[in-house]
Write a structure and sequence with these properties.
The chain is an alpha+beta fold and about 450 residues long. Helices cover about 15% and strands about 35% of the residues. Strand 12 (about 190-200) and strand 13 (about 200-205) form a beta hairpin.
Length: about 450
C-alpha cells in the first residue's frame, strides 16, 4: 500500500508512514532565554512540505539523517502548525522523538527543493500574517559587503522581482557569511524563509535561521521566470539607502543643513543624506586599511601570535585579505564632517580595490596614505552617507557632479582649503623589493614578525 502524503497529516492523530526527502536543516531560537531547537524540512512526491521539530538527542539524528536523502518516517508525533514564523504553510508540524524511525529508501520522484514564492505586490498583505515566512524569486541589482551594526554582522541586497520593483533584503550573521561569496549583482536567486519587516513605512525582507539561497540554474522548475528576470534591463540601483542615482541627485542638501539638524532625531531615524563636497583630509594616523581573515564565514581582524599570523576563530593563516577603512573629513562652504569610507565605498571612488593597492601596488604601510588616495583630496563629488547613533558617518556612495552645480573650489580657492597631506613618503615599496606576479598567490605578510 502506498504511503500517504504530508497533506494527510492531522494534528493529535496517530502518525502515518510518510516517504520524504530531507531538504533543509536549521536551528531556531525564538527567545534569547530559550534553547535553540533543531528543525528539518521534509518534502514528499506531491511537492508538499512540512517542518519537523527535533525533540530527541541531536547526536542520534546526526548519524541517521542526512540532507537530500529520502526516508520512510514512522513513530513521530503530529502537532498543530507552529503558528509563528512558519517556514511552510502545512496542516501540521512533525515532532521527532526517541521512537521516530528513519528507514532509508531509494526514490527519485521527490523534489530536492521547495519554494512558495510571493510576488512583490502581495508583500503588504502577507506582512500582516506574522505566522508565515516567505520565499522570494528575484534578481540582485546591487549588494554590499558584510557590515557590522552594533553587535551584529549583516549583508544587504537590493533586488527586483518580475514587477521590477526594488526591495531591500538583509542577510544576518551566519546567513550573511554563508552566502557572501554567492550573491552578486545580476544573479537570479531564490531566497527562502524571509521575514517581512517595515522601516520608515517601507517594506523590507530579512533572513532567518532557516533562510537558504539558490542561484540561477540551481532553481528547479522556474526556467521561464528566471529568463524573464534576466531579460529585464539593469536598473541603476545604489547601495546603502538611496535606490537610484536619481534619488541621490534629487535629494542633495548642504553640509551646513545636515549639521544643523537635531542629532537625536537624525540618529534615531537612521537618516540618509546627499551633499556636494570635497575631501579635505585623509587621516593616515588612523590606518587606511585593515588585515582580515579570508575565511568564508569569518571577517575578523588578524594578528601575530607566536610569530605567526593568527585569526582567533580560524587559527593560523598563510595570508590575510585587505579591506579599506579610511577616516577622512569632508569640506563644503566652511562646514566640515568627519566620515568613514569602508571597502565598497572607497573601492568605487578610487577605482582600485584594497587587495590590489596593497599587494600589487606595494602600499603596505597602513598609516601612510597612498598617492592614488591623496589624489582624491580637493575633488568635488556628490557623497551620500548615513549618520548613525555612535556618531559614525559612513559614506555609502559617490557620484560625479553634473550640470551647473556650484563647486567647492568656486566657494573657496582650492589652495586655501586646509588640506592635510602627510609629509612622509608614500609607503610604496621600491620595485626591486616588490613581489612578482608569480609570488602574488603567496603570503604578503611573512609569518615571522618584521
Amino acid at each position: 500500500m502506498e504511503d500517504k502524503g504530508i497533506q494527510d497529516l492531522v494534528p493529535f492523530k496517530g502518525p502515518i508512514p510518510i516517504t520524504v526527502r530531507v531538504i533543509r536543516k536549521y536551528s531556531v531560537q525564538w527567545n534569547p532565554r530559550d534553547k535553540r531547537r533543531l528543525f528539518y524540512l521534509f518534502t514528499d512526491s506531491k511537492g508538499h512540505a512540512v517542518e519537523a521539530k527535533v525533540d530527541t538527542r541531536k547526536k542520534r539524528l546526526d548519524s541517521q539523517v542526512f540532507l537530500y536523502r529520502c526516508y520512510r518516517v514512522t513513530g513521530y508525533v503530529v502537532d498543530p502548525p507552529l503558528g509563528f514564523c512558519q517556514v511552510v504553510d502545512a496542516p501540521a508540524t512533525i515532532v521527532i522523538g526517541d521512537r521516530t524511525v528513519f528507514q532509508p529508501v531509494d526514490v527519485s520522484d521527490i523534489p530536492k527543493q521547495y519554494y512558495n514564492f510571493i510576488r512583490n505586490e502581495d508583500l503588504k498583505e502577507k506582512s500582516e500574517q506574522i505566522e508565515f515566512l516567505i520565499d522570494y524569486l528575484c534578481r540582485i541589482e546591487n549588494c554590499s559587503t558584510i557590515m557590522k551594526r552594533k553587535d551584529s554582522n549583516m549583508l544587504k541586497m537590493w533586488v527586483i522581482d518580475e514587477s521590477e520593483k526594488v526591495i531591500e533584503i538583509t542577510l544576518w550573521e551566519n546567513i550573511a557569511y554563508t552566502y557572501a561569496n554567492v550573491v552578486a549583482p545580476g544573479k537570479v536567486v531564490a531566497v527562502s524563509s524571509l521575514k517581512i519587516t517595515k522601516f520608515q513605512d517601507s517594506l523590507q525582507l530579512e533572513s532567518t535561521s532557516a533562510t537558504t539561497i539558490d542561484v540561477d540554474l540551481a532553481i528547479e522548475g522556474y526556467a521561464d521566470n528566471i529568463k524573464r528576470l534576466k531579460d529585464i534591463p539593469k536598473k541603476d540601483t545604489i547601495s546603502f539607502g538611496f535606490q537610484t542615482e536619481d534619488d541621490i541627485r534629487s535629494n542633495i542638501t548642504t553640509l551646513a543643513n545636515v549639521l544643523s539638524k537635531d542629532p537625536a532625531s537624525v540618529h534615531e531615524q537612521n537618516h540618509r543624506f546627499a551633499c556636494i563636497a570635497a575631501i579635505k583630509e585623509i587621516h593616515g594616523c588612523r590606518t587606511w586599511y585593515s588585515s582580515r581573515c579570508p575565511g568564508p564565514q569569518c571577517n575578523d581582524t588578524v594578528r601575530y601570535e607566536d610569530d605567526h599570523l593568527m585569526c582567533k576563530h580560524c587559527g593560523y593563516l598563510d595570508k590575510p585579505t585587505y579591506r579599506y577603512c579610511v577616516n577622512a573629513t569632508l569640506y563644503s562652504d566652511k562646514s566640515t564632517l568627519p566620515v568613514v569610507f569602508f571597502d565598497s565605498a572607497m573601492t568605487k571612488i578610487l577605482g582600485i580595490d584594497c587587495e590590489t593597492l596593497v599587494v600589487r601596488e606595494g602600499y603596505t604601510d597602513p598609516k601612510v596614505v597612498p598617492k592614488p588616495m591623496l589624489a582624491l583630496i580637493g575633488k568635488e563629488k556628490i557623497f551620500s552617507f548615513c549618520m548613525r547613533q555612535n556618531d559614525d558617518t559612513h559614506i555609502q556612495q559617490t557620484l560625479e557632479v553634473k550640470g551647473s552645480a556650484v563647486t567647492v573650489a568656486n566657494k573657496l580657492p582650492l589652495e586655501d582649503l586646509p588640506f592635510t597631506a602627510p609629509a612622509t613618503p608614500t609607503g610604496k615599496i621600491p620595485a626591486k623589493h616588490r613581489r612578482t606576479e608569480d609570488e602574488l598567490d603567496g603570503p604578503l605578510i611573512s609569518n615571522k614578525k618584521p
